């Protein structure tokens, strides 16, 4: 690991002041569950590390009548165990409770989960000529790609977007609060926060190198919501496919309206499955309508050589998430 200078500011403004205009030499440290792995793999080699752990304001959770604000430094465990969040936003808390194991959930943060680097093994192998580290072509397109994107149209890089909190937050209409130099503040819809990287100067999100996420704001709209993910094993594993849904009504025989269905782990960015939402809009959610939404969710998928199995998993994941949200018994759990 390369030697670096360590900074521990007391305010978000001080932290931003320590950042540089270009990526590479300065990295932010929150829980460290991603950055330390990148450093050990010689993918990130910063000369300066700016810790956010001395900024108490980033770790707060505020529940109001109209909005909920979660500081970017709130840990995954804090989110998963928060009683009001579990009541209002099960799509968020269920996802948080499934991430890693207890150690990871007690260290990892909301901001880190949203801004983490992708998990592609070619990107994380220092010897691979990855497109995002200066190579000429995405190695996964013709290589080992069983966990990569199935929505690959027009993407030079076929990573799978890794954030499992983003899915529910997008479905719930959340926004990120961003702080930049000279105290410039802006609000970014999380639906527009993520980007598909194309080269070494890009990240998987829309932040500039000298900006930080300070909080995420979620409107309180009494939405029925849920999240579900499919993994190879039930603990400490990354999901292969994940889905979150939110809508009005949809329980006790009511029709679902304002339906939003979001997918993750299937494209370089989270996917808002509009065709799937239309399939259940203004309908009672049952086995038939939920299955129709699942089929609609994979319209336009173009899987790679080793991941066509994900198409079926998306269909199942969307169906089960909708049924969970509607209050149906999860019969697939036995």
Instruction: Give helix % range.
Output: 25-40%
Strand percent estimate: 15-25%
Derived structural class:
alpha+beta
Name the poorly predicted regions.
none
Net shape: globular
**How many helices in DSSP terms?**
11
Strand order of the largest sheet: 4-5-8-6-7
Order of helices and strands, N to C?
EHEHEEEHHHHHHEEEEEEEHEHH
* Alpha-carbon distance between the two ends: 47 Å
Q: What's the β-strand tally?
A: 13
Instruction: Compute the CA-based radius of gyration.
Output: 20 Å
**Biggest sheet overview:** 5 strands, antiparallel
Query: Could you tell me the mean pLDDT?
Result: 96
Give an overview in words:
With 334 residues, the chain is of the alpha+beta class. The chain is built from eleven helices and 13 strands. α5 packs antiparallel against α8 and α10 runs antiparallel to α11 (309-326). The longest helix has 18 residues, at 309-326. The mean pLDDT is 96.
Topology:
Blueprint: E1 5-7, H1 12-17, E2 26-29, H2 35-40, E3 48-51, E4 61-63, E5 67-71, H3 76-81, H4 83-88, H5 90-98, H6 102-107, H7 110-115, H8 165-171, E6 175-179, E7 185-189, E8 212-219, E9 224-230, E10 241-249, E11 255-264, E12 271-272, H9 274-280, E13 283-284, H10 287-297, H11 309-326
Parallel strand pairs: 1-3, 2-3
Antiparallel strand pairs: 4-5, 5-8, 6-7, 6-8, 9-10, 10-11, 11-12, 11-13
Helix pairs in contact: 5-8, 9-10, 10-11
Based on the model shown, name its key terms.
334 residues, 11 helices, alpha+beta, single chain, 26% helix, five-stranded antiparallel beta sheet
């Amino acid at each position: 690991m390369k030697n670096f200078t360590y900074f521990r500011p007391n305010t978000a403004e001080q932290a931003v002041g320590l950042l540089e205009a270009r990526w590479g030499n300065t990295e932010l440290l929150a829980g460290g569950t991603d950055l330390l792995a990148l450093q050990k793999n010689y993918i990130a080699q910063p000369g300066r590390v700016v810790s956010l752990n001395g900024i108490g304001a980033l770790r707060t959770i505020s529940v109001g009548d109209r909005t909920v604000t979660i500081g970017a430094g709130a840990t995954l465990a804090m989110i998963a165990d928060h009683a009001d969040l579990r009541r209002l936003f099960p799509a968020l808390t269920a996802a948080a409770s499934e991430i890693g194991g207890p150690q990871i959930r007690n260290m990892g943060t909301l901001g880190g989960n949203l801004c983490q680097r992708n998990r592609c093994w070619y990107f994380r192998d220092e010897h691979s000529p990855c497109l995002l580290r200066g190579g000429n072509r995405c190695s996964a397109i013709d290589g080992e790609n069983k966990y990569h994107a199935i929505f690959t149209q027009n993407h030079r890089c076929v990573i799978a977007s890794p954030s499992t909190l983003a899915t529910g937050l997008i479905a719930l209409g959340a926004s990120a609060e961003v702080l930049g130099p000279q105290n410039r503040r802006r609000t970014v819809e999380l639906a527009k926060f993520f980007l598909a990287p194309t080269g070494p100067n890009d990240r998987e999100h829309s932040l500039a190198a000298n900006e930080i996420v300070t909080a995420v704001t979620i409107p309180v709209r009494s939405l029925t919501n849920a999240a579900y993910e499919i993994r190879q094993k039930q603990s400490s594993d990354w999901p292969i496919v994940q889905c979150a849904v939110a809508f009005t009504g949809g329980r006790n025989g009511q029709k679902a309206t304002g339906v939003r269905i979001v997918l993750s782990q299937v494209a370089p960015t989270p996917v808002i499955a509009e065709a799937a939402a239309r399939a259940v809009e203004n309908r009672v959610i049952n086995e038939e309508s939920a299955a129709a939404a699942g089929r609609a969710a994979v319209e336009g998928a173009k899987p790679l050589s080793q991941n066509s199995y994900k198409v079926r998993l998306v269909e199942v994941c969307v169906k089960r998430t909708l049924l969970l949200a509607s209050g149906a018994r999860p019969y697939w759990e036995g």
